[in-house]
Design brief:
Blueprint: E1 2-13, E2 21-33, H1 44-53, H2 70-96, E3 104-114, E4 120-123, E5 147-150, E6 172-182, E7 189-200, E8 206-217
Antiparallel strand pairs: 1-2, 3-6, 4-5, 7-8
């Protein structure tokens, strides 16, 4: 992709009874071109930088990471998390002395994918001299260089980790699953209700029949 970037300079505006005013005015255009390189071996990046520097190209804008095995990794994490949750539920049942088989359960899960370009942080490392200067003194601060460093996701808050050693920027996948167990069991009570039944005989006599029928209350 080729782009034209405008270049500006400052033009001084002279005034008699006030300070000089500097106005930014366009000077021209600078032609810039973005170069996209696709590679699979991270070690090749140093070779690319060396080759491009010979042509006075020094700006490395960003490095994007792509993986064709994300779906496989997600399935592996889901299967391992399922076994871990089943083990935890059994432990809780032993501790509480009850079973969660017939209780209400709800599950929610989600994936978070962290790309290396999102995990870089910046800092400025410098030491300035502490001089006792007058408040009216003009101090021109030097421009400090900014350094970027890669900060991966910390692994101390997870139940299990696949490939825990992170020696270079990588794509990190997080899987979170939550299970809600309602231990309040639905109680079913069986109550007996007495109903009055009357039998009419062929002679027209009335006789009371006492019959009890069970009824389930949900």
């Amino acid at each position: 992709m080729i782009s034209f970037v405008p270049v500006y300079e400052y033009e001084a505006e002279k005034k008699v009874f006030s300070r000089k005013t500097y106005n930014e005015v366009p000077l021209g255009f600078e032609l810039k071109k973005n170069i996209h390189i696709k590679y699979s071996d991270p070690n090749q990046l140093n070779d690319f930088i060396s080759i491009l520097s010979n042509y006075e190209i020094y700006d490395l804008v960003r490095v994007d990471y792509f993986s064709n095995s994300l779906e496989t990794i997600k399935k592996e994490m889901m299967n391992k998390a399922k076994l871990l949750i089943q083990e935890k539920i059994k432990n809780y049942e032993l501790l509480l002395g009850e079973t969660f088989t017939n209780v209400e359960k709800r599950i929610t899960d989600d994936f978070v994918v962290n790309l290396p370009v999102e995990m870089y942080r910046s800092y400025e490392a410098y030491n300035s001299s502490s001089l006792n200067l007058k408040k009216t003194a003009n101090v021109n601060q030097a421009t400090k260089s900014t350094t970027l460093y890669y900060q991966p996701v910390f692994s101390k808050e997870f139940d299990f980790i696949i490939n825990p050693s992170v020696l270079e920027p990588v794509i990190q996948v997080q899987y979170e699953i939550k299970i809600f167990i309602n231990r309040e069991k639905e109680k079913k009570q069986v109550a007996k209700t007495d109903k009055e039944f009357i039998l009419i005989t062929p002679n027209g006599d009335l006789k009371n029949l006492n019959i009890n029928t069970p009824k389930q209350i949900h």
